[in-house]
């Protein structure tokens, strides 16, 4: 046995023991962990990563410091896990595999403009301009009624004819009481989606409102198992420091927790055989892992949904004891473990510089949840050349911000009232468009 294989097998045994000790249940002895691909020193991951259905290929957007010394680069990267070799890389983000392992859709940033692109795994052939970029990225892939169907972060979906989108695109159906939700992912059969509704992860139909499950949990983007029964996503650990993965059984209305790992477990995705692949960020290891036999974990009933985010929130609700510095204020919540942060911080600082140059009545601030590693926060700020005012965010107020769904989260206040929230990183152009759409009406 090769030393590397022996080390992985040992880790699997140790991982099972850790989980069993953590949960105090003999059943959890079947769970095992395997380290499958380490990140390079200083390497981050932009947004989610995805495993191919057969578990052989890993796709992620590698985020590295820009050689120019300012900002970062993002490279869509496909790794063959059988030998840990990179088989494809190109500037881009948001890769997602087809159900049959044959293709990967991603947003290419090669060349002068972005392009929705499909790569064929067997031949390496690439098709550009698959769909209009304006329909959204953060793709998820399904097969509905025998046709490949792509859903985007913006709630738009389209079938594929070969490698080309069939237009016009459809839209996620709006349902009473919840609307469409935000930032959805689709089930493998194209029937259901997971989405965020006022802070909670909600499972619902793509085109109907007949079977809606409010998990009551504040978590991140939730990926469907191949049979459509389970969804997995990360949530904040008790106490708010770090993240761990939960698995919700949408049929029995139960939840399992993949505990026992000291670091952050982020953005799980399923293989056909029921393993979870996820990114792990800890003192002991930074990279990607498999968890096997996760359904052997003890299940407990989902509790009644906690209160949704209030319809109206004021500055004082989120930042008590402080005063809004301007009539309009934009606050970005971020943390040291989010690879989105450097780009988003640079864009936010540019927005603040523009506002000051124009004499605009706009405050641009940041907030870091309690428990973030201060040394890492300062290192990221220094490396990104960012110097923005920071406002304290108490642990008991974090759940009100929506940042438990995704970090960074941006909050826009006007006259001391929260008028809109955005989940995920925003570019400079995104920020200016968002503010333009929320222009202060004349008095």
Short description:
By secondary structure, the protein is mostly beta strands.
Mind explaining what this structure looks like?
The chain is mainly beta and 443 residues long. It has 2 domains: 3-301, TolB, C-terminal domain (Neuraminidase); 315-437, Glutaredoxin (3-Layer(aba) Sandwich), CATH 3.40.30. The protein is built from 5 helices and 29 strands. The strands form 6 sheets. Strands 2-3-4-5-6-7-8 form a 7-stranded antiparallel beta sheet, with no helix packed on it. Strands 9, 10, 11, 12 and 13 form a 5-stranded antiparallel beta sheet that branches. The chain has a 5-stranded antiparallel beta sheet with strand order 18-19-20-21-25, with no helix packed on it. β19 (230-236) and β20 form a beta hairpin. α3 (341-358) crosses α4 and α3 (341-358) crosses α5 (428-437).
List keywords for this structure.
globular, Glutaredoxin, mainly beta, seven-stranded antiparallel β-sheet, Neuraminidase, 443 residues
């Amino acid at each position: 046995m090769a030393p590397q294989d022996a080390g992985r097998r040992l880790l699997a045994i140790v991982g099972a023991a850790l989980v069993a000790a953590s949960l105090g249940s003999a059943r959890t002895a079947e769970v095992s962990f395997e380290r499958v691909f380490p990140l390079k020193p200083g390497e981050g991951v932009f947004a989610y990563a995805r495993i191919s259905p057969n578990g052989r290929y890993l796709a992620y957007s590698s985020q590295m410091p820009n050689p120019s010394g300012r900002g970062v680069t993002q490279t869509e990267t496909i790794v063959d896990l059988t030998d840990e070799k990179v088989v494809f890389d190109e500037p881009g983000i948001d890769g997602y595999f087809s159900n049959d392992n044959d293709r990967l859709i991603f947003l290419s940033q090669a060349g002068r403009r972005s392009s929705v692109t499909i790569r064929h795994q067997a031949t390496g052939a690439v098709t550009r301009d698959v769909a209009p970029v304006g329909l959204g990225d953060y793709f998820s892939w399904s097969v509905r009624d025998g046709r490949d169907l792509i859903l985007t972060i913006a709630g738009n979906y389209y079938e594929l004819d070969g490698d080309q989108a069939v237009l016009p695109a459809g839209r996620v159906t709006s349902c009473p009481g919840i609307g469409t939700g935000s930032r959805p992912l689709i089930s493998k059969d194209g029937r259901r989606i997971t989405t965020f509704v006022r802070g909670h992860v909600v499972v619902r139909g793509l085109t109907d409102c007949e079977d809606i499950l409010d998990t009551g949990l504040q978590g991140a983007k939730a990926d469907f198992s191949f049979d459509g029964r389970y969804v997995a996503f990360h949530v904040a650990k008790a106490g708010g420091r770090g993240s761990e993965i939960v698995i919700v059984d949408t049929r029995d209305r139960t939840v399992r927790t993949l505990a026992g790992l000291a670091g952050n477990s982020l953005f799980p995705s399923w293989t056909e055989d029921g393993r979870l692949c996820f990114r792990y960020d800890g003192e002991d290891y930074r990279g990607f892992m498999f968890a096997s036999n996760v359904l052997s974990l003890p299940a407990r009933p989902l509790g009644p949904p906690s209160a949704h985010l209030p319809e109206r929130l004021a500055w004082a609700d989120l930042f008590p004891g402080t005063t809004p510095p301007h009539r309009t204020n934009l606050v970005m919540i971020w943390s040291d473990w989010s690879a989105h942060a450097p780009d988003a911080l640079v864009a936010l600082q540019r927005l603040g510089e523009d506002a000051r140059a124009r004499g605009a009545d706009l405050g641009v601030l940041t907030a870091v949840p309690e428990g973030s590693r201060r040394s890492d926060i300062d290192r990221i700020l220094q490396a990104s050349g960012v110097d923005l005012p920071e406002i304290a965010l108490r642990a008991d107020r974090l759940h009100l911000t929506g940042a438990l769904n995704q970090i960074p989260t941006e909050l826009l206040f006007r006259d001391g009232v929260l008028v809109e929230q955005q989940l995920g990183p925003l570019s400079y152009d995104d920020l200016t468009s968002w503010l333009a759409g929320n222009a202060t009406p004349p008095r």
